Fold each of these.
Amino acid sequence: MNVPVSRPSPSATRRGRPSEPPERARILIVDDDERNLLAIRTVLEDIADVVLARSGEDALRQLLKGEFAVILLDVYMPGMDGYETAQIIRAREQTKRIPIIFLSAVNKETEHLIRGYSMGAVDYVFKPVEPVVLRSKAAVFVDLYMMTREVRRKARQEQELLDANLRANAERLRAEQELRLAEQRQAAIIHSLPLVLYLEDQDATPRMPKFVSGNFTAVTGFSYDDVVATPTLWLDRLHPEDRNRVADALSARRQGRAYAVEYRWQCADGTYKHFLDQAVLLRDADGRPLEYAGTLLDVTDRKNLETQLLHVRKMDALGQLTGGIAHDFNNLLAAVLGGLGLIERRVTLADDQRKVLDMTRHAAQQGAELVSRLLAFARKQKLEPAHIDMAELSSSVTQLLGYTLGGLVALEWELQDDLWSPYADETQLELALMNLAINARDAMPEGGKIRIACRNVSIGTGNEAAAGDYVVLAVSDTGCGIPPDMLERVTEPFFTTKAVGKGTGLGLSMVYGFAQQSGGTMRIESHVDQGTVVELWLPRAPEAARRPAAPAIDSTSAGNRGRHILLVDDHEGVRATTAAMLEDLGHMVVTAADGEHVSQLIQADHLQAIDFIISDYAMPLVSGSEVIRKLRAVKPGLPGIIISGYADKEAISGAPEGVIVVSKPFTPTQLQDAIVAAAHVSRN
């Protein structure tokens, strides 16, 4: 194997940069004669790096390793001669443009020269070689190679610069596009927000912004040109109650301090919006004040939500207060009405005395009705929801209101086709509709029409009422309407827009409480001098709510006979009047003040004759439900009644099986009917 002898290129020894071209050009000398190789290398090594090859095969291997400026190729060599080697070199894409100079000691004839040129030679040098001629010819191709390489290098550099410039332009274009997109997004976000950005001089008098953001018109209804045309516009449209407070807050501008103030401002459509006005003072590099940069934020929705939350909390507080005192009130009223009943039954009264008694009873009954309405508002009354036939209900309410509405007011019903049935307490719904109708009548002193329209509504999530199906009963009138500042208060107990003595202020609060407790809601829309619409939203009755009529109870059965009754109540007045009422009904009564007293009776075995129990629900230490359970442990199946001045859901759900709950105050007839019903349940 022939190993080329050549001067190593400095660039060839550099590591990490194998693709970098050598600093000097290279010349490939191919000859099988060692002496010729050494002689030619000596002539050419000062103009280029010389690589030696001793055969055609060796030359082809060297050509695979790199580029050459020119090839000096001996024509006659053993094996693969110069012509064949040149032909292969010209056939390869990588080497076909390398100049080839044939070296020949013979064959100077024209036909041999033409053959050489046809094989790709660019020149001939005949042996013995003339150094000056060889050097001159090789130098031409070396210079041409070096210039070509320099042209390529510059072209590559220019292309790299062009590519870099294109990349830079593309990056700049992309950055500009992203910047424009970001600006568009920011503008869209600002336009979608109830927010105005502004710039304003520190000492502007009257207040006049130099710049406002594009959504100023959307927030206020005015354009910036309107503000410029009327410099006092901002001050003129401040709510009168807020002007002094705003002026005090803006005085901070004179000291260069930041400020924040909330106020009401009248927009172009005449409505007031709540604005949160905040600004900071911008300064230059030397600390000198430039201008105020601020934001005007529409917080109307937030204020409305705060008002609603405050209203809900106030209603809950009133409801808790109402529920807490209702039991005591009902105990007092039960004692009063029971005592009046005893007097009426046991004492012969003159006519004037009976009038006084009737007046007293009427006042006590009004008190009981008042407590009932308070419980309805507190949503703690006992409700018995059921499937309601709206056609029958409309007929019943129309009859009840026939004489109440008078001749100047007409009642009109409008029931949607295929109207669903609401699921609610029918008695309370009748009372609610009567309250709304009477309110509508009072709003139309000169007469008019009350319209009750019923329709089906299905709603999804995100509404005031829970998602589901509702029957909406809308009671509308064409009366005087309710002022906007009073709308949010009309459901408060004891608040009324009527004259003194014309209303208790419990009508709408009772309706509101009934709707909430029934799983629905109430909505009010009113316009002054145009009328009011009150909507009751009640849940749709499920098919399972269609219950068959309860079988009639035979009042002549054994359940109506005189009984041995244990009466338990911690209120002395109620205990005494109820015991007297039971005795007047023909029953024998044993009384106990509380659960502890009952336990003593059990231990003393004084309950052998007892066949009925009547107990108050809310008592110290032991509830009425527990009293009945203790007695039933001794006398299983003992029938009983729970009487309660605060008949809430917990009392009903906690009552033992078969026990009937009766609300205080009650009449002798109601009490006797409950005794008969409880006895009937215990037998079945």
Amino acid sequence: MVRERPYALLAVVGLLLFGPVAAVGPAVAADARLTLTDATVTPATPTAGAPITAETTVRLSGGSNTSLTLDEVRVVRPRDGGDDEILGRATDLGRLSPGETLSVPVTFTVDEPRSYDLRLEVVGTDVDGETARATRPLTVGVEAGAPQIELRTDGVVAGADTPVRAVVSNPTTAALRGIELTVTGPATGERTRRTVATLAAGASETVNLSVRAPEASETRVAVRTDYTTPVGVERTATFARNLTVAPLETDVGVRAQRAQGDQQAQVPGGLSGLFGGGAGGGALQPQADDDEETSEAQVDVTVTNFGNAPISDVELLARTPDGAALSAVGRFAVAPELGPGESATVTADLSRVETVDGVRFVARYDAAGERSESATTYDYAAARGAAELTGLDVSVSDDGRVSVDGNLANVGDGDVTSAVVAVEPTAYVEPAYPQRTYFVGTVAGSEFAPFELVAQADTANATALTVRVQYTTGGERVTETAEVPLPADDGTDRSTDRQSLGIALAVTLGLLVTVVVTLFARRTRNG
């Protein structure tokens, strides 16, 4: 028993000695085994300027001997020779215990379409306040996200508004909204802004813009595009291109020819009824009916833009050769705009023109901000009437009263208007009541109208009477006279004839009385 005590004592002493040594020795450090197990990118086809989401799974290994507070997960863009750029981060993610996982989405954007070699990083803090990190590479291919612009033009002209077609395309997989295109920079004009409300994924649309380049051989056209991304973010992109600028050439031609029937009134955009008002002193003139038979008075006038810049507000006026306006023709709205190489035709009616010297057609238009005009002269002579006296029947009474019946014939092509026929007073003939004058009125070409005149003549001396004809044709008042012979005399003295007639009657009466007396005497004797 005594022998065993020392061993027992030694055991107790050893326990007392080694126990305290283990308690006060160095502590084992916490071991947080943090990893990023996977990563997915949405949308499947990321686009520049649009949000991109990288979702990764954070795992704290079950072999870790500590829990971990997740401070942040971030997407980092490495930079050579400089600080890395943090494109996006997610924070306040909570705490992970050993063996737990957490899916974390991180959203970011990039401005240029290309392939990006990025890095996912997770940062946490363990129970001892130590930082734990884990990384994972992330490669993202980014396509263009802003609307794509393609400029098409036949050429920019210095100092003039030149049309430019912009083809807008949506390269993304979702619709873009509120696309507004604005021309900026030196080449600007009055019509430089256009809007596309919605552009579907993969769709394109052509937008007409206008630029006005300065006097230069080349100019830079920039198109700013303001749009709303599929997630509602408003963004701006700019497309620029250098364009060659040609010098301005204004060349407008006017051609007039006899109307070609169903080819009348050919104008751009199907403009068939042009406006008008005939003799309204400058009112716009309507077109003649297509079914109306064409004549020399129907004239097709064609305005052609041979220049290299558009002309606008094109109108046509008719004037006399000396520049006076022909209100009987009026003016025509030819076209709101004529591009280079384009033409428009209107038909003018000259039937009421009262000139024989031709008609000057003047096209007025705006070119490069200035009002200009071009003209041509159409060789046109207005149809004229010509009056003649025909079918005359002249009679003279015993008292010298003369009656003239006849027709006023129009042997011309145009109308004769306000025609008046009258007896011209002479030394031996005077107009007499009730038909001193006769108002004939209007006589159309190749037509006639009857008239009647009365005069008093000195038949012993008068051999003819003078008839005066007045009428209007071609805008002129015409006065003409015609000598109308009186019925021819047989040369016998009318007083001698009357005396001979009286003697003959007296002799006849005497013979009759003698016969009656003789018969009566014979009956008496025989009785």
